[in-house]
Amino acid sequence: QVQPVESGGGLVQAGESLRLSCAASGRTFTGYTMGWFRQAPGKGRELVARIGWSGIPLEYADSVKGRFTIFRDNVKNTVWLQMNNLKPEDTAVYYCNKYPPPDYWGQGTQVTVSS
Question: Could you report the per-residue pLDDT of 90-101, keeping only the tens digit for each?
Fold first, then answer.
């Protein structure tokens, strides 16, 4: 079982940046496609970005394309999401997981962007 632990969220103003980190406990996620997901208040969980086992980004949501970058270090067993030019509509709880995601989800990390 891969047990992701997210960190790096916080409260920022529009236009600022954050970097989210996802570290694995239990089994490593080396060799798996990984994704960042988010859930805004009153909405379902959506895929933000995903990255292949070799470090090639595979997909970005249209709403974040050009602003967010996903990258990974398989030696450190860590996946990051660099978020630039944040907007209020990015406010959500952010989760990382394997893609396609299994049933298990971590606690996520809260990102709040004020206008």
Answer: 999 999 999 999
pLDDT at 29 over 90: no
- CA pair distance 93, 10, nearest whole angstrom: 10
Structure token digits, residue 61? 């949501």
Residues in the chain, overall count: 115
Whether the CB-CB separation of 82 and 71 falls below 8 Å is answered with yes
Instruction: Calculate Rg over the CA atoms of the chain.
Output: 13
Contacts with 72 (C-beta within 8 Å, 6 or more apart), sequence order: 34, 51, 55, 78, 79, 80
Enclosing H/E stretch for 92:
strand 92-98
Candidates 112, 106, 40; CA nearest to 83 is 112
